[in-house]
Design goal:
48% of the residues lie in helices and 17% in strands. Strands 4-3-2-1-5 form a five-stranded parallel β-sheet, with helices on both faces.
Length: 149
């Protein structure tokens, strides 16, 4: 065998070993780890649509114990979650999501712009102090899949 063939054989063997280990890791991860998803909401007209998507997601995987979901809200959409302005259906849905373990993160910058505090939002919200887009990036770096319906 010449050097080129030896090198090619070694590289091929390493590639096959790496591929097999990645396939096994993906199989192992699917067995015990919950899928992590972050929903991004900024459009006021999409509030009900996004909340419906989240409920469908929870129902589709067999319940909240099978998925980890975060909802990051900023911009005009946050007004829908002001406790004094929220409709009863929205309040009920947000309460259920909170009980199901959905992280409800309100953009700190939007809260300042709208002159609203965390206490004035529906119960269950946390503040994304550094901003909604920063929180989205943090969650993605933690392995969350990004969805913007």
């Amino acid at each position: 065998m010449n050097r080129r063939n030896i090198l090619w054989s070694a590289v091929s063997a390493l590639g096959a070993a790496f591929g097999a280990s990645r396939a096994q890791a993906a199989t192992d991860a699917g067995a015990g780890d919950k899928l992590k998803v972050v929903y991004h909401l900024s459009d006021a007209e999409k509030v009900n649509f996004v909340l419906g998507n989240i409920q469908n997601h929870i129902d589709g995987v067999g319940g909240p114990e099978h998925v980890t979901i975060a909802l990051v809200i900023h911009g005009p959409a946050l007004k829908a979650f002001h406790a004094g302005q929220a409709n009863p259906d929205l309040s009920k849905r947000v309460g259920e999501f909170s009980k199901d373990g959905v992280e409800l993160a309100a953009c700190g910058n939007t809260m300042k712009a709208q002159n609203v505090t965390l206490k004035e939002l529906l119960p269950g919200f946390v503040s994304a102090e550094k901003g909604g887009v920063v929180r989205l990036a943090e969650l993605q770096s933690q392995g969350y899949l990004y969805l913007r319906p």
